[in-house]
Amino acid sequence: MTDRLSALTGRLEEIDDIQRAAAVLGWDQMTYMPQGGNAGRGEQLAALASLAHERLVSPAFGDVLKAFADEVAGAPADDIRHALLRTVQRAYDQATKLPQELVGRQMRLSAEAYEAWVAARAAKDFTVFAPAFAKMVDLSREIAEALGYPEEPYDALLDLSEPGMTARAGLDLLGQLKAELVPLVQAIAAHQERVDRSILYGQFADESQWRLGLEAIAAFGFDFSRGRQDRSIHPFTTSFGVGDVRITTRIVEESFASAFFSTLHEGGHGLYEQGLPAEWARTPLGQAISSGVHESQSRLWENLVGRSRAFWRYFLPKAQAAFPVQFGHASVEDMYRAVNYVEPSLIRVDADEVTYNLHIAVRFELERALMQGELKAQDVPEAWRAKMQDYLGVTPPHDLVGALQDIHWTGGLGGFIGYTVGNVVSAQVWEAAGRALGDLPERIAQGDFAPLLQFLRREIHQLGSRETTDGFLHKATGEGLTTRPYLAYIKNKYSEIYGL
Amino acid sequence: MTDRLSALTGRLEEIDDIQRAAAVLGWDQMTYMPQGGNAGRGEQLAALASLAHERLVSPAFGDVLKAFADEVAGAPADDIRHALLRTVQRAYDQATKLPQELVGRQMRLSAEAYEAWVAARAAKDFTVFAPAFAKMVDLSREIAEALGYPEEPYDALLDLSEPGMTARAGLDLLGQLKAELVPLVQAIAAHQERVDRSILYGQFADESQWRLGLEAIAAFGFDFSRGRQDRSIHPFTTSFGVGDVRITTRIVEESFASAFFSTLHEGGHGLYEQGLPAEWARTPLGQAISSGVHESQSRLWENLVGRSRAFWRYFLPKAQAAFPVQFGHASVEDMYRAVNYVEPSLIRVDADEVTYNLHIAVRFELERALMQGELKAQDVPEAWRAKMQDYLGVTPPHDLVGALQDIHWTGGLGGFIGYTVGNVVSAQVWEAAGRALGDLPERIAQGDFAPLLQFLRREIHQLGSRETTDGFLHKATGEGLTTRPYLAYIKNKYSEIYGL
């Protein structure tokens, strides 16, 4: 390790330590913190965020980064230091381009918008939220101007969570999905009675659900000596380092699928975090490629594995042992069909594989129109209803199950596209894994998930951020981001299930 | 608030935020962290400690403190800013007197000593630990020289946890206790059969123990909207602010008293933390007076309340409801006597009220001799055995239940005296509360703990560090630190129980 490299990593590690400490505080806030801790926790998190930011934008850091960049300039193209430089430069540029004053304003506006959102939800009325949201859109435009963008302001926001993503690319991606999925959803909606999911509802004891979920992700390869699951109102994954990855779930005793698939989903995120390269831990190079690639890992384990026939051939006896009354008489086919029930619905987080991306399309198109000034905040509910009707054939009776359902808009715009990238990438990776491994469904039916995990470790997890989304996709699948495998998977699977 | 005051508190609050964040990480480390998190957590804690230290010793902080000191110099004697200045100056002086190099060496040596201690415990042989411990004694002398002291080096270490405490004062305090307690322990040991504690042993379901402990401290006034209890191997209390105080316990199903009194004990610490003055939160003035005063609060609720006849008049029916088989036929007198069983034993943490301080005397006198160069590290086991025999009439068969029993010496010397100060102060405060309230035992027997808590809040908790130990004792009890109430309490109580 050169002096310049170690000077850089020394500083990066300190910043990472502060950010991971903040992650611990955030995890505790969502899992165990008593209500009285709120005010103090806010101060502590703000102090840590400010310390990390201060260190990243300091002139001393800039000097060290510059010296490292000069050194790397002459290195061969495949030298990993180029990748380190790229990821660090990106973080540094983002941090230095956003004035502290703007970051502070965003934090305060988020708090204000959150309060307005809570009040609006109580009133089931978006107009209560609209003034704060309008300010958030304006501020998002300011942030976009500060960061810069290739074609239009929305690009800058998209790039924050999906490096390189643009409004144009996002619209194209969602357009391809809509073209195939809207008619498919209509066809399925006309035959909804062909699938019976009633076995998934009843009484499922909390403790048994908890154990069964853990049993599934333990089989996937989640390492409980380097992670754990706790409870929170909204499931999430966070990481304090490759040796300590936390996932959460929440259990609904009346519904089997809710916690079970949430555990598989967060378990998938957790497997990614546990597989990141330890040798680049505590630097941006040791982190995931993007939110979308992260989501591809959660969706792969939740859907491509967890909602497959092969998985239920393996796992049904375990589910039956946990819930003999509920599942004792169910066949693999019963379970497979039940967990793949499709229903055009109002709520994104409850959406199935087929309808999910249409929810994202609604949000993405509205955000883009807002950013372009083509739509005003107060007109969002009307536009929302129109798009929901067009894409899904359902219309929210009020905003609580419409434009007020997601918390995301209290913090800003641009984050939804990762969900669709995740779905699309998960199918690409799944297809490539199937090709590479040959007998993937048979392995899964035997409960042997190791070959799949090894494939993901090698092709994705172990890279950290060494490759971009497009770069890793080319290497792992032979092509860039494409909707082909995802659409083929969805159409084949659901045409069969619904007999279309 | 003046500009100079707000400049100072602004900096203090940032430091406090970092330290509280570290406390959250420390809590998680002891409660939920998986094994794989160890390495990363160590880095994160070190980064936070270094950040907080850096900020405290920075020239900018020194300037702000100096400006504040100049301002306060002219203020009336009862101005609270004097107290703030005193507590901040103390923290600043300690931090600036200890060079970073020395702090770093202490941290590394602690890690080394901890490993040696673990190995020595496995071998039940102090000589495995002795070399690292000898280095720790040398380093403690170095630290003492850096900090300065009134009479002898040990004073400097004592002052760190008990401001103003000296070796001379500690020897005197323990000497007074030994003079009365050694013969009392001998007298009790000759009549041990007079108390039967067998009802405390058997099978006590984990979940019922957990609930019963929480029921007791809820009755005391522990606020669960501003705190919670979790599990850890060694019980402890930590605070992330007055709104978020965490206690822990560990449950032994075969023994009722273990978890129950540990919850009362930590609950007492927790009540102190929850009662600290919110208006000085995030400054040293908003913190406890000393470790010893903190311990006085835990001991008061654990022993003076929890091991009183009045408490069991109130609480026995609840304990019977939780454990009908075990306690169904027990009388208040049965429970009162059982929980006050006295036995000269080898292990400090299992010691009863009568023998506890003799364990502290052994450690204190050995530490002092080590610091004075009168005793060598390798000779500790022999000296330990001799003193145990003299004070308690028992001799450890090996070092695991002798000089290797406490983890404290892996981190340094000087911390034990707080336990004895806590015991002594708890009795002084209890006597004063009894005088002030008149009908304290009757209130307790009715489960009305509010008058006692209000007394503690007013006389101790709400002060923060406004008063010194001696200062608050004079105001609350009319005299300084004295063993009289403690010895009177012990002699009266145990003479009656053991019919001496």
Determine the CATH topology of the largest domain in chain A.
Answer: Neurolysin, domain 3
Portion of residues within helices of chain A: 55-70%
Class computed from helices, strands and strand pairing of chain A: mainly alpha
Give the strand content of chain A: under 5%
For the secondary structure, the number of strands of chain A is 3
User: What oligomeric state do these chains adopt?
Assistant: homodimer
Number of helices of chain A: 21
The span between the termini of chain A is: 60 Å
Q: What low-confidence regions of chain A span 5 or more consecutive residues with pLDDT below 50?
A: none
CATH architecture of the largest domain in chain A: Orthogonal Bundle
Shape of chain A: globular
Q: What value does the average pLDDT of chain A take?
A: 97
Widest sheet, order of strands of chain A: 1-3-2
Biggest contact: A-B, 41 and 41 residues
Give me the Rg of chain A, rounded: 23 Å
Tell me the domain tally of chain A.
2
Biggest sheet descriptor of chain A: 3 strands, mixed
Quick one: CATH class of the largest domain in chain A?
A: Mainly Alpha
Helix-strand topology string of chain A? HHHHHHHHHEEEHHHHHHHHHHHH
Q: Can you walk through the features of this model?
A:
The structure is a homodimer of 500-residue chains. The first copy, chain A, has 500 residues and is mainly alpha-helical. Chain A has two domains: 1-97; 162-500, Neurolysin, domain 3 (Orthogonal Bundle), CATH 1.10.1370. Helix content of chain A is 65%, strand content 3%. Chain A has 21 helices and three strands. The first copy, chain A, has helices at 3-31, 38-57, 59-73, 80-97, 100-123, 126-147, 153-161, 167-189, 206-220, 256-275, 291-305, 309-322, 324-327, 332-338, 356-371, 380-392, 417-437, 440-445, 450-459, 469-477, 484-498, and strands spanning 227-231, 237-239, 245-249. Chain A is globular. The model of chain A has no long low-confidence stretch (mean pLDDT 97). Chains A and B meet through helix 1, helix 2 and strand 1 of A and helix 1, helix 2 and strand 1 of B.
